[in-house]
Amino acid sequence: MYDLNQLRSFVVLAEELHFGRAALRLNMTQSPLSRQIQRLERVLGVALFERSSRSVGLTRAGSFFYPEAKRIIRLSETATDIARRMAHGLEGSVSLGFTATSAYDVLPRLVTACMAQLPSVHLALKEFTTQEQLDALESGEIDLGLVRPLLARPQVPSLLMSQEPLVLALPEGHDLTRRAALHMRDLDRRDFIGFSYDSRYFSGLSEAHFMANGVRPAIVQQIGHIHSILPLVGAGVGLALVPRGACQLGVAGVVFRPIESVLDQQVELHLIWRDTESPPALTERLIAVARSLA
């Protein structure tokens, strides 16, 4: 079987049609160049050059072989470059899980930064709940995830990406919208749309604020997702506490107001990845991009 050195020697000689000039380009003497060509011809079983004391020319077989030899060399060089870039985390594909609310702010910023800093890296985005992301991370379905604070498996490495306060979502025209400032105490015995157990992080965070402020709202509905809660708020079903990023959803009939609480506990979003001694280079590159945004 021929090797790449023999192919390179053939290509250069085919372009120069002169052993002296070809040897100079290849940084070798004419004798080893001649031996490389002879070995290649023996492997192929055909003559690639017509030689005389005065000239060198390609045979018909050599003319057909020339573009194919160049293509093989180019593919080899491309494959080598891709392998090196992947080894250094500059090329390849990485799967990133995210929660629905992370798509309001952090996810777009992270994707934009990756596109700018790692243009040859493909991000495969997958929307999951926090618990689903933990399972997907463990099974290898995703490489990283944007999740709410971990309720279990604290051994998973993480990076705090953002903190934001809870705000009050109200229907337009509600009497509380006319107040200059709102406090959690204002929610006592008010009709309220809470989070279901499926969203136990938000459910637990809301409950913590209620208890700290001595508030007992009247829970009329319990819903799992913010984008389902807000239309019900707009319909006048009840009030809701949501992360400030939800204001970007622009749901008709819903207004948002800051609300004071004696509990200084905000909504957090973390980037997580598998706990290994040596994460893949591509994962490390993406973590580095995320750190620049955190």
TrEMBL record:
Keyword DNA-binding attached: yes
UniProt KW keywords: DNA-binding, Transcription, Transcription regulation
One Gene Ontology CC term in the entry: protein-DNA complex
Gene3D superfamilies cross-referenced by the UniProt entry: Periplasmic binding protein-like II, Winged helix-like DNA-binding domain superfamily/Winged helix DNA-binding domain
Pfam entry (one): LysR_substrate
Domain of life: Bacteria
Entry's Gene Ontology molecular function annotations: DNA binding; DNA-binding transcription factor activity
Keyword Magnesium: no
Domain HTH lysR-type: 1-59
PANTHER family xrefs: HCA OPERON TRANSCRIPTIONAL ACTIVATOR HCAR, TRANSCRIPTIONAL DUAL REGULATOR HCAR-RELATED
Family named by the database record: Belongs to the LysR transcriptional regulatory family.
Record's protein name: LysR family transcriptional regulator
